[in-house]
Design brief:
The structure is a single chain. The chain has 184 residues and is mainly α. Helix 3 runs antiparallel to helix 4 and helix 4 runs antiparallel to helix 5. Belongs to the peroxisomal membrane protein PXMP2/4 family. It is a multi-pass membrane protein. One of its GO terms (cellular component) is membrane.
């Protein structure tokens, strides 16, 4: 395990974006795999490989570049100057992440992207339906999980490891997202 972490760290330092894209795609695919196996839409549901492929594509090609950039922006632009700098910077980063990114970028991007990748036409109607049925429960679920985790993530981990930490916790979160996306 130490060898794997060492190799991952080397890749992260040499090619951070590509490394984050591969790991994010893999872990979103893992979340979809778990969702399909643990929470099938109906009994005897066959495994949908294209659904998992869409999750991998979304994670690696769409979300990872954005997430990689987002954590770097939070680390450099959201900084408290004054007493308790580290603690207050962490609190501000969590607030910006949870009150701006999650509700206005992260969750909408997921539902819009996945609806388009699934080719659910008419797109606008299906996207609006997904927002109507799933946006608020997803955001509430987000606020139950992510603020506490992100506080520790921003406070304890160097910026280059934050997306990986999010991705590891995201196995469970991605299972939930996939379940929400495909629930009737």
């Amino acid at each position: 395990m130490r060898r794997f972490f060492h190799k991952y760290n080397q890749l992260l330092l040499k090619k951070p974006l590509v490394t984050n894209m591969v790991s994010t795609g893999f872990l979103l695919g893992a979340g979809d795999f778990l969702a399909q196996n643990l929470f099938p839409t109906y009994s005897e549901q066959p495994y949908d490989y294209m659904r998992t492929l869409r999750a991998v594509f979304y994670g690696g090609i769409i979300f990872a570049p954005l997430g990689d950039k987002w954590y770097k922006i939070l680390n450099t632009k959201i900084v408290w100057a004054g007493k308790n700098e580290r603690t207050m910077s962490t609190v501000l980063r969590v607030l910006v992440d949870q009150l701006f990114f999650a509700p206005f970028i992260g969750i909408p991007l997921y539902y819009v992207s996945m609806t388009i990748l699934e080719n659910k036409q008419p797109y606008v109607e299906n996207i609006l339906e997904k927002f109507h049925t799933s946006y608020w429960p997803t955001l509430r679920g987000n606020w139950l999980v992510w603020p506490i985790f992100q506080w520790f993530n921003f406070y304890l981990l160097p910026v280059q490891y934050r997306l990986l930490a999010v991705n590891l916790i995201s196995i469970g979160w991605n299972t939930y997202l996939s379940y929400m996306l495909h629930s009737k």
